[in-house]
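Lecture notes, continued. The same structure-token format from the folding unit now serves as the input rather than the output. Read the line below as a description of shape only.
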């Protein structure tokens, strides 16, 4: 069964995706990053496909780690009049999704957790887009992590003098 989804952006807000600039490199573990707003892949996937089309990437196939999302999506999803085939795998890296473009190019994206705070999400998108970075998805996400605020613990039971 094919599910028809409207292309577009939720409430006029762009989808948060970034691709590395330049020609694809063989020595990198990923080609960019995506920061979905939820773990509902049925809502997020059409938005990602539409955003990538604006960047010149026409997605034909999308694979994802089944355990990282709330529920699986249909095997075929129609976005902007184009059909995208999907596949869910248990063996995939939980921090990646993979796309195959109409030119045969494979694109792996680091998935920034939807729960990430704004600073972490923006940092992860920026770091994943750096051409010279060849680290793992886990390292990018760790490097992007917001620094915790120092905890202030009141001193009680201390008397002056």
């Amino acid at each position: 069964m094919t599910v028809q989804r409207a292309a577009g952006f939720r409430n006029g807000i762009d989808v948060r995706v970034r691709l590395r600039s330049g020609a694809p490199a063989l020595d990198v573990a990923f080609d960019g990053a995506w920061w979905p707003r939820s773990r509902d892949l049925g809502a997020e996937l059409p938005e990602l496909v539409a955003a990538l089309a604006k960047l010149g990437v026409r997605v034909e196939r999308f694979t994802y780690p089944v355990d990282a999302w709330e529920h699986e999506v249909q095997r075929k999803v129609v976005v902007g009049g184009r059909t995208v085939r999907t596949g869910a795998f248990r063996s995939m890296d939980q921090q990646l999704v993979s796309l195959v473009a109409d030119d045969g190019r494979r694109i792996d994206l680091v998935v920034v957790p939807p729960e990430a705070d704004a600073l972490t999400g923006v940092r992860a998108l920026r770091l994943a887009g750096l051409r010279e970075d060849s680290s793992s998805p886990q390292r990018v996400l760790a490097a992007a992590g917001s620094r915790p605020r120092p905890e202030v613990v009141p001193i009680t039971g201390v008397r002056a003098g």
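Point for the exam: The chain is about 20% helix and 25% strand.
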